[in-house]
Amino acid sequence: MESRKELEFKGIGVSRGIVSGPVLLVKMDELPLPDHAIVPGQTDEEVSRLEKALNETRLQLREIQERVGEAMGSESAGIFEAHLHVLDDPGFLDEVYRELREKCRNIEIILFEVSERYAQTLLKMQDDYLRERATDIRDVTRRILQNLMGAEGDWLSGLTSPHILVAHDIAPSDMAALDRRHILGIITEMGSPTAHSAILARAMELPAIVGMQEISRQLEDGDRVILDGLRGLLIQHPSPEREADYGRISHSRDVIRSRLEALKDKEAVTLDGHSVVLSANIELSTDVDTVWAHGARGIGLYRSEYLYLINEGNPSEETQYQAYAEVAKKIMPESVIIRTLDLGGDKLPKSFNLQEESNPFLGCRAIRLCLNHPEMFKTQLRALLRAAVHNPNLRIMYPMVSRTGEVDQANALLEECKGELAAKGIPFRADLEVGVMIEIPSAALIADRIAPKVKFFSIGTNDLVQYTLAVDRGNERIAHLYEPTHPAVLQLIQMTIDAGRRHGIWTGVCGEVAGNPLLVPLLVGMGVDELSMSSSAVPLVKEVIRRIRFSEAQALAAAVREMPAGPEVLELCRAMVRKASPEILELAE
Amino acid sequence: MLTREVSVLNRYGIHARPAALLVKAASHFQSVIMIEKNGIQVNGKSIMGLLTLEGNHGAILKLHASGDDAEAALTALAELFEKKFFED
After folding, report:
1. Does the beta carbon of B53 lie under 8 angstroms from any beta carbon of chain A?
2. Quick check: ipTM above 0.90?
3. Nearest beta carbon to residue B20 from set A85, A122, A311
């Protein structure tokens, strides 16, 4: 066989996992539409064909909604509510019927044209959420068309072996209907991490990359590719070496995973008896099942942002309460730490009148944004206070704190919320525990002054590294300067832990560093009480902890304090893991 | 035909959820209901129409209703606007 050159393409990884296999190009836009004239007497017949198709579509959507609801929770199923509304839209249907009579063409082409006009109007809008709705409208329309044409409609029905799907865009209802046995992963040209399809891919644990523009032109059906959903990397015609590399990574991952399965119910405790709490970071209430499956104890970081992103930036108190309460109940008796809204203004509707910022990472985001919009913030705080009734270990934490005043202000709003709920006789937990994210150097430096105001610290290493070293790791030219083991970063982490200890509160770490097996012994040696990571990283980290001694980890932390630079620190950490568990070292690299 | 002027008070404007509420409310009435912004009219019972209206925060809209229950329809819809679609 002709050997072809290996090529690498980069997109936005939205759902992690490595898979390899043949490509299947999905050309949905080329659905051949019949297009012909009809005589005026035929319009009634066309109308009744459409009505029949609408009924079938309604039934199918309800079924999808039910199935998705069972498998992935009500948040994912709610996506299809809007689709059902479209089927009953009199304005839309009137327009279709009017054009049918005026143009005297078959119903398929009329329906397509009218719907496409709406989609185009939405695509021109300023607002991200409204633009994304164009995909939803096209999705419903295609489904109606399939029913009209009596096509079995399933563009995947011929698929009998596993493939990696490559499409311009994949509609949410198609995502939900995918047969996991035949789909390895998904690549789309369109899309963003907040699109409905990306959210579904994560919920289905299906590796996915979006935003790979023009990729269909580069690939052919049957091309062998590797999809790395974590890095957003697609490798076409991988060389044998590359295949072997990825094969080894994913094979040893499988082997070790199954071995680590056995650790699920074991404690994360060192050889000399020091315990560390391992918990999981999640985004959706439906992620809770994977928390248990991977043996994490509780949730160290529940990101509330997705609730805002899928509810047009404004989830009601009730919507939030339901979501938080669902997680709180599912995770009982373990704990869940919910981070209050951590978004920049760019993700909120333009009606917030937020000005464009030239430097958003140093701008009005997270707690700053919340304190500027106290009513919005209080809606979330009330929902949290109410949800905590269902789990005494539900805690909350404020992101991006840089001064003590912010903690005071936020706590004052929290007290106001308690007063409001009490006045209305709505049950809530008065002793809800509050913590602070330490992710800005100033917060680490004044941790001693923040500690008396809170019950715990959680160090967000991703931002702490970025702000301490002034490095944007998305910038390829300086990405190598992004160094979690830089002595300045480690010193700030140590200061935070020590301040917490002096005030009798515990400190966790919830950045990516917490899930990096290489750095775990160092963090444990420095005195971190809790590590929170993506659930899939839990088994590896647990394995490392169970193979080291706390005394050795402490010695490592002490040795590191004397070291001049990050690379030496990393080398020492690597040596410790190599000694404890060589296989893990290989996987971690 | 009866007409009433309303303003969009909720911060986020007529997004999917408020649009769905309007459609649901409007569908209870026999009257023909149209919603107008800057001379453009859409059917008040159409979610697609309402979405494409771009009724952002602060926009002034005209509600038109004609039919036996026009008065009641306008009152019901105006109330949704006044109550900010139960959002704020």
Report:
1. no
2. no
3. A85
